[in-house]
Amino acid sequence: MKIKILKYVLVLVTIGVAFMAWLSVDRAINVPEASNWAVPIILFSVLFIFSYLSIIIIKRAWVLQGMFLAIFLLSFLFVFNFGNLVALILAYLFSLWGLVKIRKDLQLNVKLSLWKSIHMGSSFLLLAFAIMITSQYYFEIKDLNSARIIPQFNVGDAGGWTSKFLLAINPDFKSLDQDGMTIDQFILQAQKNQEQANGDSVVGINDQVDEMVLQEGRQKFSEVAGMKLTGSEKVSDVLANVVNQKINQYLGSGLTGPAKSSPLPYIMAIALFLAVLPLGSFLNTFWILLVEFIFFILVKTKLVNIVKIPVEMEVIE
To answer: For the chain, which residues make up each domain, given as ranges?
Structure first.
């Protein structure tokens, strides 16, 4: 009775996590405040762990087949498209292939080895989910304009790389708080460093000279940034905005409306697919280790039993 309840719970939890995973992909695409792929990575990791556990514990093939079909169909709640249906068929076939290989290896093993069995079919499951994630991503972004498709640098995180950039220009900038450095501070520090390098005295410089230097520096920064600057802006914010503008200029040039005639959605989808596969392969090791740990706990708590049975085998003498 306990094992039956466990199987029902596994199926329901797996399908529930799948819904949350597809929802997180949708939010990462359409909600600017949630445009962070860390949440989908976490949720799909949990989904893989529960999927592996289900394949190991649930013996009835039709239950597992129905579970994976439900997992992929949940993607249609966010993207209802014929192309997505084609992707679903491909993903479902790959998932069944992976399912069969894992179950077959479990049955052929003389001694239970979850590590070996899961590895036999995990690559097919990874490919299946990579296809569905890429499909949902592509059909959700294909009608968006370039500004929505092209990833933007997070200005709030720009201080770190700005500091490295400034230190690469001049090691003297390490004495400043680069994360909070303003345009005016940057200009004055650059002027001070230049005068010191030339051997000029920096004592007695009046406010009028400083103001002239600041005005000239602000004008140059304004030309680079493409907007009028007052000098109180943070250097990290300005540099991040410049990078975003250049990305939009080179990748999104000529795209004023929906990106139907642009190759950009295809490029972004292919890039996502090529990112999902290696990332999934890397995380797969940790997923399997967690599955083995959870299975160990289930065995120790007697929720799952491992028994030994006599087996007849054909061998070549």
So the answer is: 2-150+258-300, 159-251
For the entire predicted model, the pTM comes to: 0.70
Q: Tell me the C-alpha distance between 287 and 290, whole Å.
A: 5
Per-residue pLDDT, 54 = 95
C-alpha to C-alpha distances, 9 to 2, 51, 227, nearest whole angstrom: 11, 12, 57
In this structure, which amino acid lies at residue 155? V
CB atoms within 10 A of CB 267: 12
* Pairwise CA distance, residues 225 & 242, whole Å: 6
Residue spans of beta strands (DSSP E) within the chain:
none
Task: Kindly report, residue by residue over 109-141, the tens digit of the pLDDT.
Answer: 878 889 999 999 999 999 999 999 999 999 988
Report the C-alpha gap between 211 and 209 in whole angstroms. 5
DSSP assignments along 203-234, one per residue = TT--HHHHHHHHHHHHHHHHHHHTS---S-SB
For residue 146, what is the enclosing H or E element? helix 146-149
- Collect the ranges in the chain with pLDDT lower than 50: 153, 155-159, 175-177, 202-204, 254-260
Q: Which residues of 131-154 are buried (b: 16+ CB within 10 A; e: fewer)?
A: bbbbbbbbbbbbebbbebbbeebe
CA 200 from chain centre, in angstroms, equals: 51
Q: What is the DSSP letter of 75?
A: G
